[in-house]
Amino acid sequence: MTSATGSSAVTRPGFARASWVVCRQELRDLWLSGRGMPLLLAFSVLLSVTSYLVASNQALNFLEQREAVNLTLQMAVAVAGLMVLLIAGDGVSGERERETLESLLLTPVSTRSLVFGKAGAALSLWLAAFVVTSVYVVSLSRGVGIAADALVAGLLVGTVLSVFLAGFGLFISVLSSSNRFSLSVAFFALLALFAPSQLPTSAQNGWAGTTLLHVDPFTSGLQYLSKVVVDAHGLGTDVAWLVGPLGAAVVAVIAAWLVAGRLKLSPGRS
Amino acid sequence: MRRLRRQLAVALAIGAALVGHAPPAAEATAVRPDLPAAQHATAATPGWTVELDQSQLRSTLGSRFTFVSTLRNESGQAQPGTIAYVNVLSTQPSVYVDPEDWSSSRTRFLGDVKVGETQQVTWNLQAVNSGSFVVFVVVTSAAGGNDVVSSPALRVTIADRRRLNPTGILPVTLAVPGILALGMGWAWRRRRRLS
Fold first, then answer.
1. What ipTM did this prediction achieve?
2. Lowest mean pLDDT among A5-14, B68-77, B133-142
3. Are B161 and A60 within 8 A, CB to CB?
4. What are the φ and ψ backbone dihedral angles of B132, each rounded to 5 degrees?
5. Whole-prediction pTM value?
């Protein structure tokens, strides 16, 4: 990131204001000269291929329309989460690797404002991805009237998961000295979080399996989407499935807040 | 020696024919010209007869089709725990068929079938492959003998179906990445101009 504030600033602005200043600069970097647009373009190509595939299967009666919408929405939430993690994981360790962290730490904003400003920029990727996703969801759900519920549920689950992944990515990024380490740990954790959703049905039964499904933020978030979109449950019927993602998001944000306070200029550490 | 063997074989064949033990293959391929075509297609054993309401069917990929099998207990005794089962096979070696994809309800438990009783079973299938297929129904019983009786073949021809714009999604799948690519190009040009 380029320097966030002018050198004329003498007093430190408040946390919210400073975070917003950092976020604005990060947004500019991300969307005008960074990876935002290429990532979003790749995301839209992936969604185009997926939605064309599900629409073909739907036209051949191999897939119910609700299942087609659900599949596209789940794919969008999962891949957008991955993009948020990619940007957040690069947040601090990337600056450190590009040797720009020192100049950032010398700006008159708190380190927490720096980290949370970066989190805001990472979350903008999810919001942009959601806008793109909504075009596909509306197109696929024509005729069955599930677009509104699907979009609200998708926005809810995607936002909670993105907040969790942004917090988690920045937590890892602050603690890592290199981008490679930060991103590999973040992706490994993401794969591990996806694993329970791929377990065979037989392994998901019993109290241990059920608990794992509820605790794992990805599995429970995607389950909630399925309940709303495929089973046509109301948005409030299965909110128990959102406890896991919400808990994970709160823990990740607190963890990022705590480690952000420890971020400081360390002589000899590049 | 060879001549002796040939004479022996001919003598054995004549003897078998005289005592009524014709070779099984001859019995299986025998066609009685006095019966109508539908009855020729009926498989019969001492237990049941199984007939299908049609012998040929044409459909398109993804479509659903229905046929009815009629089974009749001709064993002379009640058949407990009668089971009917539908199966699908491809006549082309290159086409893999998973019958579970064609029907999620391939086994029907019909219970006890009394002597002479007839039961009809309606089968709903979805064509998930294109090509030529044979669909048939077999009947057996949970308890009893080892008989498994098959219906005649229902020859199914499934035509492929290709749509370029399924459910009208094609414009969206092209327009969204196109608009984003234009936006990216605009950002790239702006960046170049500023630098």
1. 0.82
2. A5-14
3. yes
4. -110, 135
5. 0.72
